[in-house]
Amino acid sequence: MPSSCSLLYGNEIQVERVCSLDPLGADARLAGLPEINSSGDVRALAALLRGLLPARETLSGFDADGCLAAMRDRGMVLGSLKRFGREPLEAVPEATPLLLELGERTDMVPRDVVHHYCVWNPTGPRERMYTGDVQERYLQESVRMVFPRLRAALELCQILREHEPHDPKFSILLDALDHEISSMVDSIDLVIEHVSPRFFARVLRPYFAEITVDGGVLLGPAAAQVPLWLVDEILWASDRGSEDYSGFMRDSVRYSLPGWRNLHGSWKDSPSLVTRLLEAYGAAPDAERTAPALRTSAKSLAAVLRTVVVFRGRHLGIAKQAYREELRLYPVGSGGASVRLLQEIIDLTRKNAQLAKAARHRAKQAETAQA
Q1: How many Å is the Cα radius of gyration of the chain?
Q2: Taking a C-beta distance cutoff of 8 angstroms, is the pair 335, 225 a contact?
Q3: CA distances from 300 to 177, 236, 296, 348 (A)
Q4: E-assigned strands of 154-252?
Q5: Residue 133 and residue 24 in contact, taking contact as beta carbons nearer than 8 Å
Q6: Among candidates 34, 334, 322, which has minimal Cα distance to 199?
Q7: By CB neighbour count within 10 A (0-12 exposed, 13-18 middle, 19+ buried), where does 97 fall?
Q8: 187 near 83, Cβ under 8 Å?
Q9: What is the spatial distance between Cα 270 and Cα 25, in angstroms, rounded to a whole number?
C-alpha cells in the first residue's frame, strides 16, 4: 500500500530529504553516467542497472522517500539504455519486479517522471545527469524552480472553488494565483537563454523516450508532466476545452503526484472559473452586474489567463524550433503533446481570456448607462 505521506509529496521538507538520500549507493556510479553515455556503451549501462538492483529484503526496508530516490537513480539508466536503442527491461529483465514494487509503494507509475529527474534530483556534485552538459543542468533547474510556486498555485485554485466571483476575495486570490504562475514565465525564459533547440532535440530528447514496463508503455520525464494543465482545468478547461486537450490530460494525470491526481478527480467535472464568472454576470440583477467586486474578478481572471498565454507562447516558440522537420528526431514532445496541440491550447486560453474581458466591458457599459 502507498505510504500515508504520499499525498504530501512535493513539500520542501520531503523534497530536501529525497534529494539527500542515496539508498542504492549510486552517487559514485551515476557520476560516471555521462561518460558512459558519450561512448554509447550499452553493455556498461546494463551492468550499471544491474548494480542498482537491491535485494528484495533491502528494498523492503526503504521508506517512501527512499523508494522515490531509488526510482530516481534507476530511472537515469533506464532512459540511457533506451536512448541507445535497447528496451531496458529486455536488457535487464530482473529489474521489472523491483520497478513495479517501487511504483506500488510510492503510488506512482513504475518508472521515473519529471519529479524524479528534476525536483528530487540533488544539486551540486551529486546531481544526476545524462550528458553532464551545462545546458542539461539549466533545463533541470528551470523545472526545479517552478514546482514550489506551482504547488502554491494549485492550493489557491482549490480555495478559489470555495468563493464566488462577486466575493471581493475572489479577485485577491486570482491576483495571488497570477503571481505564482508568473514563475512559469521565468522558467521558460531561463530555457530560452541557456538551452539551444538543437541541444534539446538532438542530444537530450532521446533520453526521455518511452519504455515498456510489464507490457505497458510509459513516457519518460517530460516538461508536460509539470501540471500547468491542472491550473488550466480550474481556470477554463474543465468545461471549455477540446477533446484533444481533454485526452492529453487523461493521458498525463497518471504521471502526476498522488495528491494532484486527486485534485484532477474533483475538478474535471466542475464548472471552470470562466464559466462561473459568466454565470455570475448572467444571473445578477443589473445593479449587481456593475458591482466593483465582480468587475475586478473579471479583470483579475483575464490577467491570469494572459500570463498563461505568455508562458505557452514562449514554450510554443521553443517547440516549433526543436520539432521542426529538419531537426527533430521525434514527431511529438516527450510528454505526448504535438506542436499543433500546443497551438490549440493557446488559442483556447486566449478565447477564454477574451470572454472574461468582454464580461467586464459589458459591466462597464451597464454602469455608464445607469449613471
Answers
A1: 22
A2: yes
A3: 9, 14, 6, 18
A4: 211-213, 216-218
A5: no
A6: 322
A7: middle
A8: no
A9: 46
178: number of Cβ within 10 Å: 19
For residue range 97-120, list pLDDT tens digits in order: 999 999 999 999 999 999 999 999
**pLDDT at position 51, please?**
96
Question: Hey, what's the cell of 140?
Answer: 533541470
d(CA 287, CA 203): 60
Question: Grid coordinates representing 95?
Answer: 529489474
DSSP 214: T
Residue type, 33: L
Which residues, in sequence order, are CB contacts of 371 under 8 Å at separation 6+? none
All cell numbers assigned to 189:
525564459
CA nearest to 126, candidates 25, 213, 56, 51? 25
Cβ 233 vs Cβ 362: under 8 Å: no
Residues in Cβ contact with 143 at an 8 Å cutoff, skipping those fewer than 6 apart: 114, 117, 118, 119, 187, 223, 226
Query: Of the candidates 49, 322, 335, which has an alpha carbon nearest to the alpha carbon of residue 203?
Result: 322
Whether pLDDT at 316 is above 70? yes
What CA–CA distance (Å, rounded) separates 356 from 354? 5
Do the beta carbons of residue 24 and residue 70 sit within 8 Å? yes
SS3 state of residue 239: helix
Locate cell 481570456: which residue?
Answer: 353
Half-sphere CA count of 6, side-chain side, radius 13 A: 21
Which pLDDT score, from 0 to 100, does residue 366 have? 59
C-alpha cell recorded at residue 108? 506512482
CA gap 70, 31 in Å, rounded: 15
Q: Give the model confidence (pLDDT) of 162-220 as tens digits.
A: 999 999 999 999 999 999 999 999 999 999 999 999 999 999 999 999 999 999 999 99
